[in-house]
Amino acid sequence: MPETVLCGVHLKNPVIAASGTFGFAAEYGQFFDVGRLGAVCTKGLTLRPRQGNSGVRVWETTGGILNSVGLQNPGIPAFLEQELPRMRTLGTVIIANVGGADQAEFVEGVRLLSDAEGIDIIELNISCPNVERGGATFSATCDSARAVVAAVRPVCHKPLMVKLSPDAEDIAVVARTCEEAGADALSLVNSFRGMAIDIRARRPVFDNVTAGLAGPCIKPIALRMVWEVTHAVHIPVVGIGGISTWEDAAEFLLAGAKAVGVGTATLVRPTAMLDIIDGLERFGAAALAPL
Amino acid sequence: MTTAPAYAEDAPVLAQERVAQDIYLLTVAARGNGAPGQFYLVRAWDRDPLLSRPLSMYAAAKDSVSFLYQVRGRGTGLLSRCKPGDCLTLLGPLGHGFRLADLRGRVAIVTGGIGIAPMRALAEQLLPQHVTLIAGFRSTPFALGDFEQLGVPVQLATEDGCAGTRGLCTDLFDPGQFDSVAACGPAPMMARVAGMCAAAQVPCQVSLEARMACGVGACLVCACATVQGNRRVCTDGPVFDATEVVWHA
């Protein structure tokens, strides 16, 4: 199997359950051995518990889904107490995805996760499209991205991966800025800000008006962005965006990604990641070398 | 009672019957080990649409599961065109169904439209208890014969008056005559039933519907507002105690 090393952490294969679609992994443990995955990423965590967004939270579009969950989560202290011990028994690498409404919440959240035993990598979610404060606004400009990465860096004693929004003016520039500010790795892309309108009710489908677009329809754009970023930075990149098949995953690896995140595909087919792992294995490590 | 869900990509369709205007009864070969109120994620296509459709279990036998569903859009439209021998992808049984131990004494099953879907299995399970179905439909009723066959008395209301009493199921429902209630239907109807039951101090369970993605509690897109905050329709429900749910006006 094509093993990979992500900022010093050994992954048995390059397939990561992307944040948000895999809960805290136990949900899928009833269908397959989650320990076969290269890593699992938690749902977006924040220091304080969040109820998430009201109204419709999911809407299908051609080749994709819009979602507006809004970082619903039990809060980092409850995660550490109730979910992490169970995740640690899975036999795979654990990535904790952390968000925040402001810089102080990011710092405090990262501090708690960094001190916790059993978390291998911290993924800084500066790119959630579905929260009013924090989220994607941090990833939209270089100044805000630099500020939040630099602020959490001193309290983060674990590998720090920064998850980028595709809704930046130039994602390669934001990526370089995060590298300079101390990121050990980057993951991209988060979902694109999209929208749907209920034409009969004559109102936006989502209470927040906009929502995050993910799924196969974003793959070519995500791949282009991963290509641009892997050519702009020296730190490892995790490619995410509409990966449904092993061939999709292979494209991201050939574009220079060290590993790939799979999200929506799991909602389509619970065992999609296992097929991707098997397909990559058959294709072989040599054929997956970056272009 | 909840059994472990299974994932199958090769569940053959045994039968598909159109029972009313846009209502179908689909029977699939699968282990019928679900409990009343549980549901399955069902798909009859590869990747378009992306998501599966959550359908309540209508009836279960040892080697088959039936779904009564309404064609609402493209996914259910595709399902309705499946023929015996076609293969479906099934994930289930999922969720928490009705708490049978709390449905005691004289039970009213109150339904609006396709909300009757999870109730046949429930009625069957509750027999020989005293069970009454109070069903409302916009127009032509469906599925009532299956309840009559079980010996369940049916009270019927239709909005256009084409059968039974003209009006809503809630016009016929008197919580004072029952010891416990199970309800499923459009949100305003369930809110009304919940309110009537609360006023009469009769315990009531409601089966909620939501747009779903994962169906297993991981993605959190099917949240419903409850007195304990947002909960997952797919795994915390779909059946909730009516007093738990925060009903929007």
Q: Which terms summarize this structure?
A:
heterodimer; A: alpha/beta; TIM Barrel; eight-stranded parallel β-barrel; 10 helices; 16 strands; 32% helix; B: 249 residues; Rossmann fold; seven-stranded antiparallel sheet; globular
Supply the CATH superfamily name of chain A: Aldolase class I
CATH architecture of the largest domain in chain B: 3-Layer(aba) Sandwich
**Could you give a short account of the major beta sheet of chain B?**
7 strands, antiparallel
Major sheet description of chain A: 8 strands, parallel, barrel
The backbone outline of chain A, from C-alpha atoms, is globular
Given the C-alpha coordinates, what overall shape of chain B results? Answer: globular
- Mind telling me the C-alpha Rg of chain A? 17 Å
Find the CATH topology of the largest domain in chain B.
Rossmann fold
Strand line-up across the major sheet of chain B? 4-3-7-1-2-6-5
What does the model show?
The complex is a heterodimer of chains A (291) and B (249). Chain A is of the alpha/beta class and 291 residues long. Chain A has a single domain, classed as Alpha-Beta Barrel (TIM Barrel), CATH 3.20.20.70. Chain A is built from 10 helices and 16 strands. In chain A, the strands form 4 sheets. In chain A, strands 3-4-7-8-9-10-15-16 form an 8-stranded parallel β-barrel, surrounded by 5 helices. In chain A, strand 15, helix 8 (246-254) and strand 16 form a beta-alpha-beta unit. In chain A, helix 5 (142-152) packs parallel to helix 6 (171-181) and helix 6 (171-181) packs across helix 7 (219-230). The two termini of chain A are 19 Å apart. The model of chain A has no long low-confidence stretch (mean pLDDT 94). Chain B has 2 domains: 6-94, Elongation Factor Tu (Ef-tu), domain 3, CATH 2.40.30; 100-241, Nucleotide-binding domain of ferredoxin-NADP reductase (FNR) module (Rossmann fold), CATH 3.40.50. With 249 residues, chain B is of the alpha/beta class. Chain B has helices spanning 74-80, 119-126, 144-149, 169-172, 187-200; strands spanning 6-20, 23-29, 39-43, 53-56, 59-61, 64-70, 87-94, 107-112, 131-137, 154-158, 165-166, 180-184, 204-207, 223-226, 229-232, 239-241. The radius of gyration of chain B is 17 Å and the shape is globular. Classes of the chains: A alpha/beta (291), B alpha/beta (249). The A-B interface holds A 20-24, 27-28, 30-31, 43, 51-52, 54, 56-60, 62-65, 67, 69, 72, 215-216, 244, 264, 266-271 and B 4-5, 7, 47-52, 89, 91, 211-214, 216-223, 225, 229-230, 235.
